[in-house]
Amino acid sequence: MRNLGLSALAVAVLAGCAATSTETAAPASSPQAFQVPLAQPPQVSQALTLNQIMANPDWMGIFAKEAYWSDDSQSVLFARQASAAPLRSYYQQGINDSLAVELALDKLHSADQQFGVFDRTKSHKAYLYQGNIFVKQLSTGKISQLTRQRSAIDGVRYLNNGDIAYWQGDSVFQIHQDSGLVEQLAEIKMAKAPEGVKEPTSYIAKQQHRLIQYMALQQENAKVKAQYKEALQKSDPTLAASTWYLGDSEVVSELSLSPDGRYILLALTDKNYTGSSEHDIMPNYLGSDGYINPVPVRARVAEDTPPGQRFVVLDLNLHKQVDITIEGLTGFDEDVLAKVKAENAKAKGETYQSTKAPRKIQLIQDWGWTQSAIQWHESEDKLALMLEATDNKDRWIASVDLAKGKFTTEHRLHDDAWVNYDYNQFGWLPGTDTLYYLSEESGYSQLYTKAQGKNARALTQGKFVVSDITLSPDANYIYYKANQTHPGIYNVHRVNLVTGKNEQLTQWDGNLDYSLSPDGTQLLLNASRRTQPNELYVQPIGGEINQLTSYTSDAFKNYPWQAPEVVAVPSTHGADKVYARVYLPQGYDQSRPEKYPAVIFNHGAGYLQNADYGFSGYFREFMFHNLLTQQGYVVMDMDYRGSKGYGRDWRTAIYRNMGHPEVEDLKDGVSWMATNTNVNIQRVGTYGGSYGGFLTFMSLFTAPDLFQAGAALRPVADWAHYNAPYTSNILNTPDVDPIAYERSSPIEHAQGLTKPLLIMSGVMDDNVFFQDSVRMVQHLIELEKPTFETAIYPVEPHGFRQPSSWLDEYRRIYKLFEQELK
């Protein structure tokens, strides 16, 4: 096994720190966990330094990632990769073993694969490795390689008769198990069909054929050859099926073959749509050749116009193309933006007349799943699609009449704000005409089943979020993850599909992800607590949890980190409670005369949960907050409105109004700290990156007395310049809803800046473009604002990679707070 040891720096710096456990479990039954009075922070014998916490993170441990079960449910496979390493290593660990074994390169093809497909008897598993097809006999473990080629195969599936089908590019093939014959089921060409032998039409052409016998003979011979070829294609069973010609204006964006091999579902997209900018590049000033390299970039929401998709069914038996119409989708032609358009028209002194028109639709683009939006019934010619409107207001689960090319709406989820791009899992219950799915229709993501033509049945109910659903191998249960006992505590549950009984299977007091073993008897957990990074655990259903991996370094484990306390901040803005993490300063004294300075951290992504009981993905910020407490600061980290984990209304509170509800929540956070942690409200600063940088801008621009200083990292300055998939959900599009963009973009409010502001951006940021900061800086210059400074990082993308960049960035943030808040 490869030795992945600690860095000498980490060992030297943190060795010898007291092995003190500072974290206590949150009471799972109490939604008011960790309210005042707050616990005293641990005392440390050695203060943290920025050089330590911004160093190469490998000193914390090189953790298991992308873990999954072996096919026999007796071991777990995972990868590990040092932060600066170009390659990863792969491991396998038995559930009763204390150490993992690194897999050799020549064994990777035979390792159990995470993604594969099973035949109907569950006796064989087919999978792709390095673009080639392999088949494993599960009873013996025997593996056979079926293809060996350079051109990668895109997908594979078992057919109902036991044969294997695969697709490569726009062609579909079948491997006949009895003979090994490889048959091309379909060749799809996005081109116009050949015109064949044409009869002369002009006077000159007709005259040529009438007067010149050779030309007439050539014409007749061409007809005979064409007729012969057509007859041969119909009569000769040894030939592959005729080519499908679908026109030259589109490309195939999704292809799916039915389990019986008869039908192909195609999603087609306008070939001219790329999602890339036609006008812009990102200049790489430090190109490897010494010159400036122009790097292509994605389109901005202000210029991006997704065309939607067109859907086609190919009947391979009849060689018949059936175009699917969208009329069967409930509300397919509604003017769902009528109120928004009317408001914007009125602002310009105009009127808007609403009219109905077909909307653009596409397969839903869920950002968190690995399943397909195309779900075939395992034993019948039934097909269900999950579709969304490109205006973001509707999600449909629709069945497809394969013969007639019609949609039937099985479920419509409409949202006047936007339909979530998460919590969209769905599928068929085996042997039934019943669909199971997640929906936010109650205000929270919950689990439902619905038989075709019947009403839906809610399997879960409550003010909590259900996610990550898994159908058990025997189809008796659906497993799921939920934060049922507290918004910041996640556990695994299951529901019996017959009785409807729900039961909680794990008793974890932090955050976790899970995977059900192939035999349905065990859970693989990737779990963490506030001061404990993710490790792998195995828990038999109904049994005790056992830790599988231990990759957290002793240096990290032995340091007495302060576990942030999760508090519920009362809202004065109608938002009920705002959950937040709070870190207290060393030697905290609620009654001391001199009040404490404070910092509020704004998490990124907007739709993300950070004030939970798990180990934060913002691990550098977690350590930085510990450092700040050692320097006498109170630190708060809020799940402001728009954050994940709190239901639909919390998510959509920022619709057409980004940056304003969140700032209201930050105001309540400052007030809470003043009352409960002895904070001086005249000595509070804020910082954050990406969405957190945007929120720093909005705080300093629209509430200039709230914070005394702010640091905006890789910040969004103008939402019209961000990408369409994210922004158009929340603000619609600039051409439709300029009011929302002007209301929500910091650059429109920059005149409000009166306090010190630090702007820091990576030049190679292909997410929030460096140009955002450039435009903001120029605007502040023209506004003659003297209170801002900038720092640029020439080689860094959105997520910084170099420890030296992280160190420079946080030195500047720390210096800002020390200068302005102390």
Automatic annotation (TrEMBL):
Keywords: Signal. Residues 373-533 form the Dipeptidylpeptidase IV N-terminal domain. It comes from the Bacteria. Pfam families: DPPIV_N, Peptidase_S9. The keyword Ubl conjugation does not apply. Residues 1-25 form the signal peptide. Gene3D superfamilies: alpha/beta hydrolase, Dipeptidylpeptidase IV, N-terminal domain. Residues 626-821 form the Peptidase S9 prolyl oligopeptidase catalytic domain. PANTHER family: DIPEPTIDYL PEPTIDASE 9, PROTEASE FAMILY S9B,C DIPEPTIDYL-PEPTIDASE IV-RELATED. This is Peptidase S9.
